[in-house]
């Protein structure tokens, strides 16, 4: 990769600062210190070791204004390495600060420190941050709020905004969970859902209900709920009894206001909703319920957390009346998610957010499962045989994550031999009926499609390339949805659909007028999603499903975006605070 001088890097920084200043408003530098450490917490009659930032669960909220610069000093007091990813932040010309472990940097070693520095420009709404090594994001995570300049929203200013962090409570140590999944054991499940770290009163220890998250409201006021799904395993339905929502944003961009009584939020997504406190003063339950496909395992337990909306002036006992609980969909009914996501559209975008109408590169990614033989065996029995390890694939390639090098660092230095290749297929090697439910259980057709392999295959794009991706969820050995997240970019979600994508008729459904801009698209169960973006941000950008088990199983890749023709369209050198990888796969 062509390197830039430090003078060019400074020029890029000055250009970015000038752009931020020209956009209006006085930009600030917002600084945080994150100390990551172990802590014991007791739930369900058991004390569990968890991993947290600054003793908080969820972690601290980063609250900035469009145009600000963020500086986070991370101190790692864990006995193993980690990175912090700023989920959804565009990281324009700052790929070095993306925080994707072994993609943009090696992990911060035990006892080590690292400084992340980046600008936030052109995004407004809710994003989030989380650990990006092993399963630690189950507890090492928090909200990242970007406020508009001068506090001007395209809707009435809410009385208060409240992060609603939906997660999971794991009794199993998260590092051990990660080790088991890397060994091919995916039988573990969380014990409960959480809302802002609380299990809720549906969980109990020896008959004593767990503590619930409580949202205190005043009748007549409107509240902005910033709903983020940090869970490892599940999409969640969220409702509040007796109340409705107006969806106004997602993933750091405004949406056309959409009224609903339920929000569906997949892992990696952030949804902004307005909730009017217009019910009679009383107590009302809020519920977060995980949804899982009924196949292949309908016995997956339901994960649920219940919180409380409490009106000012209502009695502590709710006047002796039962607290209303919202009627939730079946945990195995995935259609409400499909309809929710399909009904969202973007608020009219400025010129710089117009959908690219010309397409330079078209990719079709089939998302499914497969298997590799255990050990050094070249042949083995298929069909969920004990001789195999089940893996996840994109176009029948299961991504082999590096374990001792940073893809970005090696790419920048021109030392890529033996680390990766740039031949990720643009389409599956053998087209088939991707959504045939007969492929879910092992059988003759499934066994023929199951064999795959592990490899670190990437895809390279020239600067300013218009890219269209069709993500196709398949029924191969599973029927999961797939929340696909691309680092460093937002893409236009042109359409989603059920069944197999039809290249002749489905483009007629594309929304070119007001599509959503998202960093994570929920690809429906046995369905598809079409997205489009322009490669205007050089660097090494991770693309992956946001179900943790799919990441570990290999449903991932990385996109290389080349430098543009000028210094301001080229990735600057690593900043002074960037720490390079050592021989042990940790930063020096």
Automatic annotation (TrEMBL):
<comment type="function">
    <text>Lignin degradation and detoxification of lignin-derived products.</text>
</comment>
<dbReference type="GO" id="GO:0052716">
    <property type="term" value="F:hydroquinone:oxygen oxidoreductase activity"/>
</dbReference>
<feature type="domain" description="Plastocyanin-like">
    <location>
        <begin position="452"/>
        <end position="564"/>
    </location>
</feature>
<dbReference type="Pfam" id="PF07732">
    <property type="entry name" value="Cu-oxidase_3"/>
</dbReference>
<dbReference type="GO" id="GO:0005507">
    <property type="term" value="F:copper ion binding"/>
</dbReference>
<dbReference type="InterPro" id="IPR002355">
    <property type="entry name" value="Cu_oxidase_Cu_BS"/>
</dbReference>
<feature type="domain" description="Plastocyanin-like">
    <location>
        <begin position="161"/>
        <end position="289"/>
    </location>
</feature>
<keyword id="KW-0439">Lignin degradation</keyword>
<feature type="signal peptide">
    <location>
        <begin position="1"/>
        <end position="27"/>
    </location>
</feature>
<feature type="domain" description="Plastocyanin-like">
    <location>
        <begin position="37"/>
        <end position="150"/>
    </location>
</feature>
<dbReference type="InterPro" id="IPR033138">
    <property type="entry name" value="Cu_oxidase_CS"/>
</dbReference>
<dbReference type="InterPro" id="IPR008972">
    <property type="entry name" value="Cupredoxin"/>
</dbReference>
<keyword id="KW-0560">Oxidoreductase</keyword>
<keyword id="KW-0964">Secreted</keyword>
<protein>
    <recommendedName>
        <fullName>Laccase</fullName>
        <ecNumber>1.10.3.2</ecNumber>
    </recommendedName>
</protein>
<keyword id="KW-0325">Glycoprotein</keyword>
<dbReference type="InterPro" id="IPR017761">
    <property type="entry name" value="Laccase"/>
</dbReference>
<dbReference type="InterPro" id="IPR045087">
    <property type="entry name" value="Cu-oxidase_fam"/>
</dbReference>
<dbReference type="InterPro" id="IPR011707">
    <property type="entry name" value="Cu-oxidase-like_N"/>
</dbReference>
<dbReference type="Pfam" id="PF00394">
    <property type="entry name" value="Cu-oxidase"/>
</dbReference>
<keyword id="KW-0677">Repeat</keyword>
<keyword id="KW-0186">Copper</keyword>
<keyword id="KW-0732">Signal</keyword>
<dbReference type="GO" id="GO:0048046">
    <property type="term" value="C:apoplast"/>
</dbReference>
<dbReference type="InterPro" id="IPR034285">
    <property type="entry name" value="CuRO_2_LCC"/>
</dbReference>
<feature type="region of interest" description="Disordered">
    <location>
        <begin position="565"/>
        <end position="588"/>
    </location>
</feature>
<keyword id="KW-0479">Metal-binding</keyword>
<dbReference type="InterPro" id="IPR011706">
    <property type="entry name" value="Cu-oxidase_C"/>
</dbReference>
<dbReference type="GO" id="GO:0046274">
    <property type="term" value="P:lignin catabolic process"/>
</dbReference>
<comment type="similarity">
    <text>Belongs to the multicopper oxidase family.</text>
</comment>
<dbReference type="InterPro" id="IPR001117">
    <property type="entry name" value="Cu-oxidase_2nd"/>
</dbReference>
<dbReference type="Pfam" id="PF07731">
    <property type="entry name" value="Cu-oxidase_2"/>
</dbReference>
<dbReference type="InterPro" id="IPR034288">
    <property type="entry name" value="CuRO_1_LCC"/>
</dbReference>
<keyword id="KW-0052">Apoplast</keyword>
<dbReference type="InterPro" id="IPR034289">
    <property type="entry name" value="CuRO_3_LCC"/>
</dbReference>
